[in-house]
């Protein structure tokens, strides 16, 4: 049997250390992957002279599945977000951000289980048509929603809900004000929802959705929304379960998928053995489920859950005093 090859981008800052944690765990559970390592971000800029080298793009396309650490895009004119570039390049139209409560995280809520499905290539966040006047007094950007783009992301959300036995999909919008773009998204969402009579369909204006997530998050199951709203809501949801250190993300397209830690590269703690690797471990669980290796995904999830719940060798953000390597070893010991 041919060994499955995975492209691995270690990333910047704390990226290499948390990615190494995830790879140790994947190996321990017996995934038997072959890893092709590639550079992107500041590391690539230093080594290759560009943020996103062609050979990295080639490896992503060749293997079809990538595990990625956090990347840093330099602040300044002319630098485009690497994550946005990857999503556009490989048409990774679906951003899937699940949040699940783990006892021991000191989060404000218990029993949270919400998936945010975010359209990843259109809308305001895509950076389309950004213009700043020569005198710096005016700036504008363009938001574009297509029927095809809205339909495929809403269908993705309903299919995910059906596949995972979820009961409800909530379309989040601002159609009361943004009657053209958000209005089209909502119209399409309603049409798609009618094709799934087995799943409850709901809709909510984005500002109300944010308030409701804080007041009563248990009313939500799967949320589907446009690019910018999804970026904000998914981080809000991460706050319900202990922060971005407990939130993974998957970027999925027709022929390619990239799984990532969604937090930043945290250069202030890079190399200090302090980072919580849970986000990228959870992203690797998403990757295994995508590859139909659910049994191994469940083993890792149970081991991670037990470490966090027991408080055994947990990192500072989880209330412990252990470092990245000790936390990783605690998960390995359970496996």
From TrEMBL:
Membrane listed as a keyword: no
A molecular function (GO) term: isocitrate dehydrogenase (NAD+) activity
Transmembrane segments: none
EC number: 1.1.1.41
Location of the Isopropylmalate dehydrogenase-like domain: 5-331
Keywords for the protein's UniProt record, in alphabetical order: Oxidoreductase
PROSITE patterns: IDH_IMDH
Assigned protein family: Belongs to the isocitrate and isopropylmalate dehydrogenases family.
PANTHER family: DECARBOXYLATING DEHYDROGENASES-ISOCITRATE, ISOPROPYLMALATE, TARTRATE, ISOCITRATE DEHYDROGENASE [NAD] SUBUNIT ALPHA, MITOCHONDRIAL
Stated name of the protein: Isocitrate dehydrogenase
Organism: Pseudobowmanella zhangzhouensis
Taxonomic lineage of the native organism: Bacteria, Pseudomonadati, Pseudomonadota, Gammaproteobacteria, Alteromonadales
């Amino acid at each position: 049997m041919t060994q499955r090859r995975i492209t691995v981008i270690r990333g910047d800052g704390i990226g290499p250390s948390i990615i190494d944690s995830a790879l140790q765990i994947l190996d321990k559970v017996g995934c038997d992957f072959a890893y092709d390592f590639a550079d992107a971000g500041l590391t690539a800029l230093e080594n290759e002279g560009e943020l996103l080298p062609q050979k990295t793009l080639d490896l992503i396309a060749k293997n079809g599945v990538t595990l990625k650490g956090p990347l840093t895009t330099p602040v300044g004119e002319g630098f485009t977000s690497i994550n946005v570039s990857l999503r556009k390049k490989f048409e990774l139209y679906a951003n899937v951000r699940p949040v699940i409560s783990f006892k021991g995280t000191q989060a404000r809520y218990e029993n949270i289980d919400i998936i945010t499905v975010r359209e990843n290539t259109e809308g305001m966040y895509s950076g389309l048509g950004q213009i700043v006047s020569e005198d710096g007094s005016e700036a504008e950007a363009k938001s574009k929603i297509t029927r095809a783009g809205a339909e495929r992301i809403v269908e993705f959300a309903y299919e995910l809900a059906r596949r995972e036995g979820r009961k409800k999909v909530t379309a989040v919008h601002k159609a009361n004000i943004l009657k053209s773009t958000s209005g089209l998204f909502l119209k399409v969402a309603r049409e798609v929802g009618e094709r799934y009579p087995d799943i409850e369909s709901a809709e909510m204006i984005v500002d109300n959705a944010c308030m409701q997530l804080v007041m009563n998050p248990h009313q939500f199951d799967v949320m589907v929304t446009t690019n910018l709203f999804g970026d904000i809501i998914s981080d809000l949801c991460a706050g319900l379960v202990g922060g971005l250190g407990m939130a993974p993300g998957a970027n999925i397209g027709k022929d390619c998928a990239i799984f990532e830690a969604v937090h930043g590269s945290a250069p202030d703690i890079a190399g200090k053995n302090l980072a919580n690797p849970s986000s990228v471990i959870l992203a690797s669980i998403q990757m295994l489920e995508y590859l139909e290796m659910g049994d191994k995904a469940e083993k890792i999830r149970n081991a991670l859950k037990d470490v966090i719940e027991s408080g055994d060798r947990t990192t500072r953000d989880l209330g412990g005093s252990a470092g990245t390597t000790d936390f990783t070893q605690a998960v390995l010991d359970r496996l």
